[in-house]
């Protein structure tokens, strides 16, 4: 059952709190996350991993609110990070450095240095140039960096063009055919300690076959690498498990883990998973208020106060997000064909196009589903729109876990160059 559902009176609830009550207190637009839903996703992983030598490093990029990270950290999660900013978040939320995995195709020497200084447990290296760079940085600090090499297994994850990462032409990882050379180089570099292999083939996967194929390829590689004399103790499988936006049927976490268990059986590797979206996506919604309704010639525009700067996914990935009125419509209510759009001065500013929704009018609240992942984190303040606040619900209580900045706060970090200041 979803954590977001209408109650008997027809009010959309986040667990035991009416979204309307949050809107009254916090204003719109806002993001709302359900603790129960966040915990439920985690629990599915924990149950499925029982008896496996495996751990979860939550991919912070999906939702890096400190409260969300802390919730997972307290449950035992590590973190998968891609920047020093995310590292600072993980540490601030109480996740120890040794449980942090640092991924990314373009880490700077200063970032690698900060990671080594913080005692990050594993750095996933994605190129020979990065091997050399990390070796130099580790040498400067007099430490040994624990690394995996991320390989690109040349598998099509079958997801949106912009979020598939494991094909030959994608910028990620080292081509699996060149991996042995890279491991050989890593073995020669004195300040690196190779601990394993990593992969991540894409995001929003709704079938398990790409995982099966990719793991089989990497497994073969691991056998070769061991024959070459490398110690391969860890296998980082990456993230990517999909969620429901419209009518997808993503595999159960347990089934995914079953496949991994089978494909890695006997390999003797400690496994790492880096789920992001699957842990947070359906646990969050974006709530906006209808500003006005504008009938057009062929369709109606419902203009809301949430926009592409709050949720870029519809316009960037042609992503479908369900939109529901926060007050349950009467069962016999007619629908109208409409675009749900924001107030931003771009035609690409929409949350949904050509939707059949019950009639909405100014002041009505709408809820955008499955917005917990890659929502708030990808938001901007385009058009000087303050970042939407984030709210966390737990049972019948809620708290603002990131407030809406005031316009004054937004302006306060900018300044005039000295030559414009009055003498
Ligand atoms: N590990 C690595 C190395 C990654 O690059 C990613 C996501 C993950 C883990 C987590 O993947 P997940 O479990 O969340 O699928 N902004 C896009 C998604 C970009 C994903 C980038 N990498 C979207 O809104 O769909």
Give a summary of the structure in a few sentences.
Helix content is 28%, strand content 25%.
Give a verbal description of the structure.
- With about 425 residues, the protein is α/β, with parallel strands linked by helices.
- It folds into 2 domains: about 5-35 and about 280-410, Lyase, Ornithine Decarboxylase, Chain A, domain 1 (Beta Barrel); about 105-275, Alpha-Beta Barrel (TIM Barrel).
- Helix content is about 30%, strand content about 25%.
- The protein contains 12 helices and 21 strands.
- It has helices spanning about 20-25, 35-50, 65-75, 85-90, 110-115, 130-140, 180-190, 210-225, 255-265, 275-280, 315, 405-410; strands spanning about 5, 10-15, 15-20, 30-35, 55-60, 80, 100, 120-125, 145-150, 175, 190-200, 235-240, 270-275, 285-295, 300-305, 325, 335-340, 350-355, 365-370, 390-395, 395-400.
- Strands 4, 14, 15, 16, 17, 18, 19, 20 and 21 form a 9-stranded mixed β-sheet that branches. Strands 5-6-7-8-9-11-12-13 form an 8-stranded parallel beta barrel, surrounded by 5 helices.
- Strand 20 (about 390-395) and strand 21 form a beta hairpin.
- Helix 2 packs parallel to helix 9 (about 255-265) and helix 5 crosses helix 6.
- The longest helix is centred in the middle third of the chain and has 19 residues, at about 210-225.
- About 45% of the residues are buried.
- The site of ligand LLP has 21 residues, from helix 10 and helix 11.
């Amino acid at each position: 059952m979803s954590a977001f559902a209408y109650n008997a009176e027809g009010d959309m609830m986040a667990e035991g709190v009416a979204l309307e009550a949050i809107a009254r207190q916090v204003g719109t637009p806002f993001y709302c996350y359900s603790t129960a839903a966040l915990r439920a996703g985690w629990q599915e992983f924990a149950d499925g991993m029982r008896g496996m030598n495996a751990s979860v490093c939550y991919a912070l990029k999906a939702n890096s609110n400190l409260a969300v990270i802390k919730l997972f950290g307290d449950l035992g999660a590590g973190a998968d990070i891609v920047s020093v900013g995310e590292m600072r978040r993980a540490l601030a939320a109480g996740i120890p450095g040794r449980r942090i995995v640092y991924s990314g195709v373009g880490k700077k020497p200063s970032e690698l240095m900060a990671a080594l200084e913080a005692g990050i447990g594993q750095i996933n290296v994605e190129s020979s140039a990065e091997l050399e760079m990390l070796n130099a940085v580790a040498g400067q600090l007099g430490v040994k960096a624990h690394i995996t090499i991320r390989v690109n297994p040349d598998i099509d994850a079958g997801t949106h063009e912009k979020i598939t990462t494991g094909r030959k032409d994608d910028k990620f990882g080292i081509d699996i055919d060149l991996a042995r050379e890279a491991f050989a180089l890593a073995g020669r570099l004195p300040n690196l300690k190779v601990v394993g292999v990593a992969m991540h083939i894409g995001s929003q996967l709704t079938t398990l076959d790409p995982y099966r194929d990719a793991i089989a390829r990497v497994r073969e590689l691991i056998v070769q690498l061991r024959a070459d004399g490398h110690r391969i103790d860890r296998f980082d499988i990456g993230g990517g498990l999909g969620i429901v936006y419209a009518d997808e049927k993503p595999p159960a976490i347990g089934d995914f883990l079953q496949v991994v268990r089978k494909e890695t059986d006997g390999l003797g590797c400690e496994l790492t998973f880096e789920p992001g979206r699957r842990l947070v996506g359906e646990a969050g919604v974006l709530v906006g208020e209808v500003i006005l309704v504008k009938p057009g010639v062929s369709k109606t525009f419902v203009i809301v106060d949430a926009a592409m700067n709050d949720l870029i996914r519809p316009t960037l990935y042609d992503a479908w997000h369900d939109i529901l009125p926060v007050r349950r419509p009467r069962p016999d209510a007619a629908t109208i064909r409409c675009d749900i759009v924001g107030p931003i001065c771009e035609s690409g500013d929409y949350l949904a196009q050509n939707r059949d929704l019950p009639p909405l009018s100014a002041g009505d609240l709408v809820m955008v589903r499955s917005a917990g992942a890659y929502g708030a984190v990808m938001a901007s303040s385009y058009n000087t729109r303050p970042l939407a606040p984030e709210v966390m619900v737990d049972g019948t209580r809620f708290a603002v876990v990131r407030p809406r900045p005031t316009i004054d706060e937004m302006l306060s970090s900018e300044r005039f160059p000295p030559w414009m200041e009055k003498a």
